[in-house]
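Reading group handout, session on sequence-to-structure problems. Before we discuss, look at one worked example. The prompt was deliberately terse, the way you'd type it at a terminal:

> structure Arabinogalactan O-methyltransferase 1-like

The input record follows.
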Amino acid sequence: MLKLAIIGLVCTTLIISILFQMSNNSILCRAPVLVSPGILPDTNSTKDDNIMSQQLKVDAVLHYATSRVIPQQTLDEIKVSFDILKSLTPCNFLVFGLGHDSFMWASINPRGTTLFLEEDPKWVKAVIKVVPFLRTNTVNYRTKLSDAEKLIEHYHKESDCSAKKSFLRGNHKCKLALDMLSNEVYDKEWDMIMIDGPKGYFDKAPGRMSAIYSAAVMARNRKGSGVTHIFLHDVDRNVEKVYAELFLCRKNLVKGVGRLWHFEIPPASNVTNDFC
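And the output record:
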C-alpha cells in the first residue's frame, strides 16, 4: 500500500507540474478588463483576480502532491482537454463524472463555470469535504448499461429522440434525454463537455448512453458562435464507441489519444432526423 501511495503521489504531482510547465503563458488566463475610454482599469481588482488564480494553482499542486490516487486519465489524455481549456478559459465547462482530477479542471478555469454531474451522492459528499469550492449536481440516471442495445432501438422508434426535435428539458418520452438536470445546465451554452462518467463498467451501472446523447443535443442546440468541444473517455469500451459514432459522429472526431476522443461539434445547420 505504501508503494502504491508513493507512486500515486509522484504521478499526480508530475502530471499537474508538467501541465503547468507546458503553458507558454500563465495557465490561468487573465480575463479581459473592459473600461470606458479615458478611465483607468481597476488595477486592484485585476491584482486580486491574479492572486486568486495563482492561489488556486498552488492549491491544486498541493492537492495532487499529497494525493494517494492516480487520476483516471493519463498525462497524454489529459493534455488534449487541457490545451483546449487553456485556450478558452474563462469558459463554460460541463463534466460528467466527479473524480480525483476534478480539482485540476476547476483550477484551470477559475473565472469560468466548471460544473460536475455525478450520480453517487455519497461520493459527492466525500469529494466536497476535501475540495468544498467545487460546483456539483447529483444526477439520478434512468438508464442501465444492460439496456444499451434496447435504448438504440428506442431511439430509432421514439420521435422525441430524433435530431429533428433535439431537446432535453421536459423530454420524458425519450429515455436517452437527461430530463432531470438543473436549470443551469439547460440554460447555459457549454463550450466544453467532458464525458468521464457516470459508471459504465457493470450491467447495473447507469452507463454513458444518456450522457453522450444529451451532450450531442446540447452541442447541436448551441446558439453562440463556434463549436462545442466534447471529450469522451474510455472509448475502448463498446458502448462508448457505438454511441459516440451514433450521436457525436465520426466526421466530428478531430483527435484520439489513448482512450480519449475529442469531437468538435458545430450547431445543427439542418433539421434531419439523424444526428450523423
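Points for discussion. First: The domain at 73-265 is CATH 3.40.50 (Rossmann fold). Second: The beta strands are 92-96, 113-118, 135-138, 192-195, 228-233, 253-257, 260-265.
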